[in-house]
Design brief:
3-stranded antiparallel β-sheet; Arc Repressor Mutant, subunit A
Amino acid sequence: MFGLEYDTSKTGLNAVLRGWQLTAMEVVWGSPDGAKSRVVHEKVNRMLDGETISRASVINFLEAMREREVLSGEEATGKGGYHWVYYPKLDEVGFRKYVVEKMIKSLMENFPEATREAIRSLRG
């Protein structure tokens, strides 16, 4: 779930994240002291124009980013029981590097010669 896919028709992080996913990451990046999943969900939905994203979708995305070690997190107790608090493990610059490394690794595994040739031609 939430594999990295690169959409060449888009630019920046919008090429690998949906708008709401990028917003969720921006919320966590802007919360060095941690962001509760509920808060991330609320902020994401406030920033969407008439569209809503389920809390489960936001939590699943945050968990996927935690499993990829883009985010870190810890379970905490609070009103209503247990919840997760997410912390930025990689900042935005680190995440961009992560995306590039994953893509190049995949290209090298699937198209090694073509990838090497393309890199050489880009170097000029």
